[in-house]
Amino acid sequence: MHRRHLVLIVGAVVTAAGLSMLVPAAVALGYGEVGDALALAGSAGISVLFGVLAWKVIGRTGELSAREGFAAVALSWFAVAVFGSLPYLLSGAVDGPTNAFFETAAGFTTTGSSIVPDPAALGHGILLWRAQTQWLGGMGIIVLGVAILPLLGVGGVELARAESPGPTPDRLTPRFRETAKRLWWVYAGFTAVEAILLSVGDMSVFDGIAHSFTTMSTGGFGTDAGSLGAFSAYSQWVVIAFMAMAGVSFALHFRGLQRPGEYARNAEFRVYLSILAIASVFFLVGTWGGAIATTVRDAVFTAVSLVTTTGFATADFGQWAVALQIAVVGLMFLGGMAGSTAGGVKTYRLGVLMGAARNDLRRIMHPRGVFVTRLGRDPVPDSVVESVQSFFLFYVALFGVGILFLGVFLSQAGSPIHLSTAASAVASALGNIGPGLGEVGPSGNYLAVPAAGKWLLSVLMIVGRLEIFPVLLLLTRELWRK
């Protein structure tokens, strides 16, 4: 392990995040919010200074090994959450380092959990930074770095492999740097189209841009305390459509935009659409009553928001029947397609797990049979099946341990939050969703969670966004041996 590599990569990522703060600083200045503009500009200066010092002290290094790539990605995400919290602290928008780190971690990991009771009370610059953190984290700050920085192009595939959501990053070209550029162009293009569509409705241009940032990243940060319920049916249907698109692999989007038949031929895409349809119908039946148009829209919106782990809401599902709430928590584990911006376990892994389980049952009946796990018609290598099973085991274990520790923290703080609420909060953090049930539901926030609980949930957000292994590897002795 060459620690010089780690410092250099972390410094480069923090520098990129710092430079991006200048955009919301300019917006704040344009709206006459001088204090917020200075806070954002000052945060940018501190972040860039850190990165420049890392460059000057360490200098350019050589190729990254696989384990260095995993370590660099995990450390970069924790570092960017620290420096990304500076605008909240310096502007006074959020009280204390714990709340600032929590809000920033929720932003970059596209979780959408928030301690801000009313986003509308924040200045435009801070609101844009809040949305921008989700947009940058959606496709991946490392993947963006691979696309635009020659430094991160060195060993870039190792970095992308550690950060990209899904079992493996999907290459569109032999050089992953070119692949990263194409993915970001598709991502930015969809974001621009959504912003235009929202802006011609009842949203202002600012609200349209902010919501397009947090929709395509499946983040869920809004500009109003009522989330998307504060806007028209037109805006809600636009967001539904783009949430569904954000849950699709962006590599598939790139190929599908050139050859539309690629969508229909993709087995994972068909499974993903089936899950969206089944969840929508289930919620529709369970909430049937009242105005038909509103009931249908709320059911579809909630299903798509949960499956894609976006976290927007038009209805408070925490007030639904118990059976529906159980379904809500269950959907928190699913997620969109591998290679999308969605969190959760991912449709690909679910398909592989179901196929492997079916083969295990068949082996019991036919002990001498040879069975191949498939997703659709495509065979899945045994190494991938084992990796998916290990991931799911770690995911469930972290869910259980997270509930245990959060329960202890809540008990020690004398918090009135119930165990069911704590379980939904942990599931939401690991799946990068945002709202849970009860006090942390769509109509609430995480402000009442004690400090220790917020730090735990913040770590779980990062662990979930990086899909467990890069962060767990930081705790192994073998990683740090030279």
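^ that was protein a. below is b, sequence first then the tokens
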Amino acid sequence: MVDHYFVVIDEVGEALSKLDEMLQEDITAVEAGHLYASRREVVGLHKLVRPLREICTHLLRGESPLLTEASQLYFRDLYDHSIHVIESTEELRELASNLRDFYLTAESNRMNEVMKVLTCVATIFLPLSFIAGVYGMNFEHMPELKHAWAYPLLWLVFVSVAGGMLWLFVRKKWL
């Protein structure tokens, strides 16, 4: 029965390896729910095999006239296999946790990139909104209103401010 756990552990390990490859190629190809389900499966498997050590230890050290020296060899082998199964499930559990952490970090980095672009766009439009607000007021006695080139000059200021800020963001490698 213990030896059949090796088959299950190999299948779960292969599934986690495929998830790892998918995460390395394209983070959006993997859903968070799939990662959590895989981790839950590994944790459940670990909970199943963890008591094996105690059972095998009890069988190995048990004093019974039914246990012969020849059967002790099999129980030692069973104990070794159970230890190997437990260690394998611990490694799988660690791998599943690492995959989840990698996914969360990659998603966080992707969200940070989006937030950076949105912040730069908002920052570019903030001074433009201020200038438009000032010149959008309904006053008759604004000196710029009487000049023929005031409106094109205002657009030149808009484009200059936006272009200058965009150039600064690109130069600082924020965009």
